[in-house]
Design brief:
alpha/beta, five-stranded parallel beta sheet, globular, binds ligand Z5A
């Protein structure tokens, strides 16, 4: 029996990782098999690409086009080696970022031609599309404050972008969600962790396969 694929999206510090952790615990407590993963990353190849994109000094000065292809290369491996096999095995996949991150960060905020971004994104994912995408919407100023508080002010390559970049990201996400309301759930990230958790659980519960 096919499982379930849920992706989480949103700007920096919106609370995705926090919510994925608690949802994973709730699902496991209810008897479900869960795979928790992230992008870029999720496979050994993807994690090596993540390092190039975020921390390695060879990534400095990377062109937007190279960035797009690295994110989607990580995704192509992730979809085939981890996500689709887990879905086929009846498991629930919780993924921190997926194709919408590329549409929004590279397509909207970096302003790469959206048709090219979409074509490359679709090529990377093949048939592996999320059943549900949870967008945690948050003012980027609030999100960046949380990120800085967590890291003691140390920011990675992308976190160093100007606030306008993250405002474009937020607008891009809201537009994507409005265009596909069947797949997206938009949750206000400026609430308590527990309130967000409850909204997410309500949406996930009705999609759950029978626990086994
Ligand atoms: N990127 C891209 O450009 N294209 C792509 O295709 C893909 C990604 C896949 C990945 O960064 C970067 O790659 C990201 C997009 C780009 N770029 N930037 N810049 P990452 O994986 O390192 O980080 P992230 O995905 O942006 O997540 P994050 O910054 O770690 O935040 P988060 O997971 O959404 O939040 P969190 O860790 O759960 O919470 C952050 C802090 O806030 C933490 O201290 C929490 O305790 C706190 N928190 C959480 N929820 C709340 C609430 N409700 N109230 C108050 N405080 C809270």
């Amino acid at each position: 029996m096919a499982g379930l694929f849920i992706s989480f999206e949103g700007g920096e510090g919106c609370g995705k990782s926090t919510q994925i952790r608690t949802l994973n615990e709730s699902l496991q407590a209810a008897g479900h098999k869960v795979v928790q993963t992230r992008e870029p990353g999720g496979t050994p190849l993807g994690e090596a690409i993540r390092n190039l994109l975020q921390h390695d000094e060879v990534g400095e000065g990377m062109s937007p086009e190279a960035e797009l292809l690295l994110f989607t290369a990580s995704r192509a491996q992730h979809a085939r080696a981890l996500i689709q096999p887990a879905i086929d095995a009846g498991q629930i996949v919780l993924c921190d970022r997926y194709l919408d991150s590329t549409s929004v960060y590279q397509g909207v905020a970096r302003q790469i031609d959206p048709v090219s971004v979409d074509t490359i994104n679709q090529f990377a994912i093949g048939q592996t599309l999320p059943d549900l995408t949870i967008l945690i919407d948050l003012d980027p100023t609030v999100g960046m404050e949380r990120v800085k508080a967590r890291s003691g002010g140390k920011l990675d390559r992308m976190e160093q972008e100007a606030i306008e970049f993250f405002e474009a990201v937020r607008a891009g996400y809201l537009k994507a969600a409005a265009a596909d309301p069947q797949r997206f759930l938009v949750v206000n990230g400026d609430q308590s962790i527990e309130a967000i958790q409850a909204e997410i659980w309500e949406a996930v519960e009705i999609l759950l396969p029978t626990a086994h």
